[in-house]
Write a structure and sequence with these properties.
Two copies of one chain form a homodimer. Chain A contains eleven helices and 17 strands. By secondary structure, chain A is α/β, with parallel strands linked by helices. Chain A has two domains: 149 residues, ornithine cyclodeaminase, domain 1, CATH 3.30.1780; 171 residues, NAD(P)-binding Rossmann-like Domain (Rossmann fold), CATH 3.40.50.720. At the A-B interface, helix 1, strand 2, strand 3, strand 4 and strand 5 of A face helix 1, strand 2, strand 3, strand 4 and strand 5 of B.
Chain lengths: 348, 348
């Protein structure tokens, strides 16, 4: 990506260009490289400005802004969550994001983030599992086979070598589609008739359902010793997936406690329920998995730094793959203080 | 503006198209119409979700997100403030914004807002002055003749009939440029050598300087009875323009107290310093100016609802003037849950 000749221009990655970029890099390579950016940023967690997301809740959904900064770059994501959208042919979650230069405040990149969020969520799950799942984990149950499921499967394959999937969704056609979409990627896939069946023999259980309610996707009796639970779907107030008792038996790892206590599975637990921050495990100041019998749980809600990592990675990749347009987003008068003169001159 | 045929498309108003739109409508008409949207939204103030802006401060500036919603529409603005930017040929303030549908969370409009912010700030100032300045006010001093000055002048002309300007800037060439830019608009303009000189005989004093510090642009002895002060430039912590004593002698009107007490001129005063909320004056539950001798002060910092009004207005105008592009911003798979399948199919 060359430096824009004109200060008014912001590179823009459309949905079409994001797909071209992911395909040019290769989905698994993209996930693996993106994971290194996520990992890198988690390890320097303390250099980030962190704030819980700014959420506007309405009857049927939520619109959120998720900003963060490392002092040199600033990023934010706009993201909605509207489970009912699928009824009108829309996405439950859509997103876009911006990366900016802290020194000038000027945006450096505007990008679609619906696809990118799916990728970064999966990459983050797999990064966490690398520290928390038993080594040699090969079998993963995925409960909830919607838009996020294939990305999760591929991230766990790329980063951990997971190659056996056990799929369950209340809508069997979703599992079948997921299975079909993943056909070429070398998994051994079993479509299951219940979540009970799906978790049989699984080293890792990924829960990634979309309903906005307190549901029990996973009940306590379904979770055996040594399992790693990757809880992705419970990510806003009133939306959980796990029976409370599971939390009591697990070592729980989270991204950013002030946010997770409101939005994660642990919203079911008292405010002082013990959790470990993932970044501390990654940089070595806290323990991850300490025994083969331990149940580990990544209570993932998605945090702004992960979007930051994703935008930072995409910006890097644009140097090699010029899949972007130039957007005339910023006013750039010849003389900075003469904004009105620019308008007058536009009249010819 | 027709409804996009494809759900992936978001209408985008570039800087170029914003200028075309403003020129097609006419600057003064644009300001006047925009003012009716601002006025309308202030009058239904209580129907808005309000939150102080989310600011990321750095050594040389700030990046802010300003969200709000009326329950049907959601809007936010990204805006930076970097006074040193002018040294590198950049704008002190650049901005863009998004208006979304609360029911689906889908963005309906992405727009440049550098020019639009200048217009909405000026329109808001003039709307406030209509309630607070003495009727028959014709002479306005403008102290600080940077990017915002011409917009202020034209808004006060369009809404109040102000037709005599007294300009002062520490950089005389700024005043001269402002004067030159406004030549065709029918003002009687005096370029002054000091702020003292500028305020002589002024009915309204607009302060709109850019330095990020606690400055005294206007000292107490310069403010006579009956004047309306439109204090625009003091708009973040550590950045004020008025000598504190002026505040004590004035009736102070603000947009949103929790934000203004941090960012406005009244950051110099105790937390319980009495202020009146502008919306209450506008909907009739509080008094504005009550006597000809009263000094009124609009301590403006800019609030999210004003950006919301501006985006709402622009979206309306696009029905008549199709100055927008179609941006491929949102992923729109044929089957909403099949995001990964869309990616696979893009590979051909």
């Amino acid at each position: 990506m060359s430096v824009p000749a004109n200060l008014n221009i912001v590179p823009f990655v459309s949905v079409d260009n994001m797909m071209k970029l992911v395909l040019a890099v290769g989905v698994e390579t993209f996930l693996k490289e993106l994971a290194t950016f996520v990992d890198e940023d988690f390890r320097r967690w303390q250099s980030f400005d962190k704030t819980p997301r700014v959420a506007a809740h309405s009857r049927d959904g939520v619109i959120e802004l998720m900003p963060t900064s490392d002092g040199a770059l600033y990023g934010f994501k706009y993201v909605n969550g509207h489970p009912k959208n699928t009824r009108t042919g829309r996405q439950t979650v859509t997103a876009f994001g911006v990366l900016s230069d802290v020194d000038t405040g000027y945006p450096l990149l505007l990008s679609e983030m619906t696809i990118l969020t799916a990728l970064r969520t999966a990459a983050t799950s797999a990064v966490a599992a690398r520290y928390l799942a038993r080594s040699g984990s090969r079998t993963m149950a995925i409960i909830g086979n919607g838009a996020q499921s294939e990305f999760q499967a591929l991230a766990f394959k790329a980063l951990l070598g997971v190659d056996r999937l056990r799929l369950y969704d209340i809508d069997r056609s979703a599992s079948e589609r997921c299975s079909r979409n993943l056909k070429k990627f070398g998994f051994e896939i079993t479509v299951c008739n219940s979540s009970q069946e799906a978790v049989e023999g699984a080293d890792i259980i990924t829960t990634v359902t979309a309903d906005k309610q307190n549901a029990v996707i996973l009940s306590d009796n379904m979770v055996g010793a040594g399992v790693h639970i990757n809880a992705v779907g419970g990510d806003c107030p009133g939306k959980t997936e796990l029976q409370k008792d599971i939390l009591g038996r697990s070592s729980v790892f989270v991204e950013y406690p002030p946010q997770t206590r409101i939005e994660g599975e642990i919203q079911q637990m008292p405010a002082d329920f013990p959790v470990t921050e993932l970044w501390q495990v990654m940089e070595g100041s806290a323990s991850g998995r300490t025994s083969a019998e331990q149940i580990t749980l990544f209570d993932s809600v998605g945090f702004a730094t992960e979007d930051f990592s994703a935008l930072r990675y995409v910006r890097e990749k644009l140097h090699q793959h010029a899949f972007f347009e130039q957007l005339d987003l910023l006013a750039d008068p010849d003389e900075p203080r003469d904004l009105f003169g620019m308008l007058l001159r536009a009249a010819g």
